[in-house]
Amino acid sequence: MFFNIVHHNIILTKMLNSLLWPDAHPCLCLFAALVMCILVFSICQFVKMLLFPHQESMSQIPPGSQGLPLIGETLQFMAAINCAKGFYDFVRIRRLRYGNCFKTNIFGQTHVFVSSMESAKAILNNESGKFSKRYIKSIAELVGDQSLLCASHQHHKLIRSRLINLFSTNSLSFFIQQFDQLIVESLHTWENKGTVIVLDHALKITFRAMCKILMSIEDGQELEMLQQDITHVCEAMLAFPLRFPWTRFYKGLKARKRIMSKLEMIMAERRRCSHPNNKQDFLQQLMTGNDDKACSEQVSKLTDSEIKDNILTMIIAGQDTTASAITWMVKYLGENQDVLDRLSAEQFHIAHKTSKRPFVTLEDLNEMPYASKVVKESLRLASIVPWFPRLSLDECEIEGFKIMKGWNINVDAKSIHCDPILYEKPNTFNPSRFDDESRPYSFLAFGMGGRTCLGMNMGRAMMLVFLHRLVTSYKWKVVDSDSSIEKWALFSRLRTGCPIHVTPITPD
User: Which residues are within 8 A (CB) of 256 and not within 5 positions of it... i.e. 6 or more apart?
Assistant: First the structure.
């Protein structure tokens, strides 16, 4: 618009010059045009302020930089991904510069970041239906557009209604027994190792657990190949979406294709099987329906594409986020002996009560109040998922700024978790801070509102079971306290993997 005004004023000025100053230099003509343009523009803005003062105050957009043409600040974002502080550092630097609400441009799209409880409530609660979920292009293509992570508002409700029964109390109780068995088997192998990398073991355990409960896959070679493909997908999630054979994104897409083919093969085989109900895993329940009512309502059934995308999503979420959280938790405990001593007292009390049973139960986990606070504090301080992305479906106002339709708006959970107004000494590991109920929308480890993580209780249970078995089996010391973040990881992973020196606890 500004250049159109300049163009028209140049023409007008030339006409005036030809009449008033026929011998004037062309540069003077251009200067006169620019002066006239600025004058007209200023008058228009002044008149607009007088006539529409309220509209002017409402039209202020968030501060920030759009970066270079077309690519915006994508290069800076990619540089943050590839540094030891992690990609969240890109957000942290701009929040310090611009405040609690700022805008940027990543991968050709405008992103707004907000970091207050009030904004989190308005966006995540989404009572007005003004926001939908949308991840950046690379993530959306890798997990699939039928995934819960990327589904539109109404589509998300449908998929969620079909998945929610998978996370019932009965399913959780059964899963806890299976997971505990895997933990016991894995920790038994630590006895003669001396030093172990927590992240490596946590990834293997959580991956085995998710594959078993989701698809009943337990074969070692099959698991290994599938885990390699899942790793490629995860590594590609923040990659620049270039489809050249040597790029992370291309390798991730190829890995996704192999995973989808694997799932298609499993589903086809089960449909040919005369006794498909022998498999009572999540996949089977999604294929057959959870009850007669669901089977009779065709509209509520998930398509094969929806099933495959969401099985992949649950593998990634169940493995990667939980393993990362477990690793941070072990690090924090190893560096805070007073917390570990109090936790150990609680866990040995539980161990004494359950000594005659091979595995812990859901009821046992419910009797671990301090351990639950340790889990919660670990999730707060680590902020495995640093922000929650949404898409603005309509023009709206957030924190006094105008948000345009089609903009991406991200709730900065990590900033909220580290807000000194909400949490005293926020960088200190202190589970007792949760002795009192936390304020609504001040703890966002699993999101909030209609898109709260479906696997929230399962994730907590996995962390509690791991914690119980580790604390009652070993004493440990953190070998490397470096807090650097692993490069290219979507979720905040420790670069070192948290190496610890373990010593078995001998029974009295």
Answer: 142, 144, 229, 233, 312
Residues in the chain: 508
Q: Are strands 109-114 and 408-412 parallel, antiparallel or unpaired?
A: parallel
Let me know: does 237 contact 230? Beta carbons within 8 Å: no
Please give the residue that has the higher pLDDT: either 185 or 15. Answer: 185
Question: Can you tell me the distance from the alpha carbon of 222 to that of 139, in angstroms, rounded to the nearest whole number?
Answer: 25
Residue 123's H or E segment, with its range, is helix 117-125
- Does residue 485 sit in helix, strand or coil? strand
Residues 6+ apart with CB under 8 A from 401: 60, 61, 62, 101, 112
CA distance 414 to 95: 12
Token representation of residue 482: 């470096």
Structure-model confidence comparison of residues 109 and 7, the more confident one:
109
CA distance 45 to 138: 41
pTM: 0.85
Please give the pLDDT value at position 274.
63
Of 167-176, 222-231, 294-303, the poorest mean pLDDT is in 294-303
**CA pair distance 31, 42, nearest whole angstrom:** 16
- Residue ranges of alpha helices (H) inside 220-247 are 220-236
Provide the mean pLDDT of the chain.
Answer: 85
Comparing CA positions, the residue from 188, 507, 183, 191 lying closest to residue 355 is 507
Q: Which of 261, 375, 324 is nearest to 496 (CA)?
A: 324
Q: How far apart are CA 401 and CA 59, in angstroms?
A: 7
Query: Which of 249, 489, 237 lies closest to 382, judged by CA?
Result: 489
Q: Which residue has the tokens 């010391």?
A: 477
Higher pLDDT, 18 or 459: 459
What is the rounded CA–CA span in Å between residue 347 and residue 367?
Answer: 10
What single-letter DSSP state applies at residue 71? T
Of 186, 191, 237, the C-alpha closest to 209 is 186
pLDDT at 505 over 60: yes
CA 412 to chain centre: 11
Please give the Cα distance from 299 to 67 (Å, whole number).
45
**CA-to-CA distance for 335 and 337, rounded, in angstroms?**
6
Per-residue pLDDT reduced to its tens digit, 321-362 = 999 999 999 999 999 999 999 999 999 999 999 988 999 999
Mean pLDDT of 369-398: 95
Rounded mean pLDDT, 267-277: 78
User: What was the pLDDT predicted at 506?
Assistant: 83
Residue type, 413: A
